[in-house]
Design a protein that fits this description.
single chain; alpha/beta; Nucleotidyltransferase, domain 5; 5-stranded mixed beta sheet; 10 helices; 45% helix; 20% strand; binds 5'-O-[(R)-(carboxyoxy)(hydroxy)phosphoryl]adenosine; binds zinc ion
Length: 330
């Protein structure tokens, strides 16, 4: 069973070929450089870039997998949540290709895709699990009882964790997306040098909030007058990163303890962050639960996680017709 997975929900045009729901034959991700100068994704530019990239990216994914169009059994495409104009490019492309190849098409929830990174990384992962999804648009705690059976435990009340990285990076003159650059420049810094707030840290409240942290960073920068540089910048970024990681991991581990699940996992672009990954491993060990940390390339947006969800949906008999729509929300 060969599934082509396509994702155009935000600013990455991605396609992958997945065999039998497990083996990634290829995964191509084209990041759109156009947004760097704007400090965030400009939806109209993103849609136009998807239009230019979708055909070559899919062609490259097939070539890298050594697969002909005619060998594809089904197409899985992200149809929610995301930027509507962007989703429309992927979904319209997938519909046309599915029609011409006469194969099934299934619409996939992008967030469920991030959850499936854990299954691709560790097919025998022990469920139920608590899964932390931290991306540029979403920050959620999800209980995974079975593949396709989820319970929402908590979510951000305002900014997503990745958005906090991107906005703080913008204040410091970094280009979008700032997460990887902040991680790099924070390396070796003192995470206790600056006292940044961890919001809503009350047990029993599984929601997150990052807008206060963003404001605290803004005020601190105003106080400092000039932008920090050198060691001071390193400490500043390490302290900011620690505030995000603390909030994410402490709340995740509370959810793990309170629900008594044997496994914790994570996904979404921020899950590529080494400080977050290491801290989750440490805290899971302390609690004696097993932890699944998907490889970085499965955490950030990619077509393979979408194909994996599609494969599971198809196995359950799900099919979407050419009337498949898109939605900005879930
Ligand atoms: O999941 P993703 O690729 O796209 C969305 O669905 O949003 O996540 C992108 C987000 C961006 O905010 C980016 O800054 C953040 O993930 N990110 C990181 C790292 N790599 C990507 N944040 C912190 N550390 C990283 N290494
Ligand atoms: Zn994502």
């Amino acid at each position: 069973m060969l599934v082509l997975g396509v994702d155009t929900s935000c600013d990455e045009t991605s396609a992958a070929v997945l065999s039998d729901g497990r083996t990634i034959l290829s995964s191509i991700v084209a990041s759109q450089a156009i947004h760097a100068q704007f400090g965030g994704v400009v939806p109209e530019y993103a849609s136009r870039a998807h239009m230019q990239l979708i055909v070559p990216v899919v062609r490259q994914a097939l070539e890298a997998a050594g697969v002909e169009y005619g060998q594809i059994d089904a197409i899985a495409v992200t149809n929610r949540p995301g930027l509507v104009g962007c989703l429309l490019v992927g979904v319209s492309f997938a519909k046309a290709l599915a029609y011409s190849l006469d194969v099934a098409i299934v619409g996939v929830d992008h967030i469920e895709g991030h959850v499936f990174a854990a299954r691709l990384a560790e097919p025998d992962i022990r469920l139920p699990a608590v899964c932390l999804i931290a991306s540029g648009g979403h920050t959620e705690l999800i209980r995974v009882d079975a593949w396709g059976e989820y319970e929402a435990l908590g979510r951000t009340r305002d900014d997503a964790a990745g958005e906090a990285f991107d906005k703080v990076g913008k204040m410091l003159g970094m280009t979008y997306p700032a997460g990887p650059e902040i991680e790099r420049k924070a390396r070796g810094g003192d995470p206790t040098a600056f006292a940044f707030p961890r919001a809503m840290m009350r047990r029993g409240n599984p929601d997150f909030s990052f807008s206060g942290l963003k404001t605290a960073v803004r005020y601190k920068l105003d106080d400092m007058g000039a932008l920090p540089e050198g060691d001071e910048l390193r400490d500043f970024l390490a302290s900011f990163q620690a505030a995000v990681v603390d909030a994410l991991v402490i709340k995740t581990m509370w959810a793990v303890e309170d629900s008594g699940v044997p496994t914790v996992t994570l996904g979404g672009g921020v899950a590529a962050n080494a400080a977050l990954r290491e801290r989750l491993v440490e805290d899971a060990a302390r609690l004696g639960v097993s932890v699944v940390i998907p490889p970085r390339e499965l955490c950030t947006d990619n077509g393979a996680i979408i194909a994996a969800v599609g494969d599971a949906l198809l196995a359950r008999g799900q099919r979407d017709g050419l009337a498949l729509g898109v939605s900005a929300s879930r």
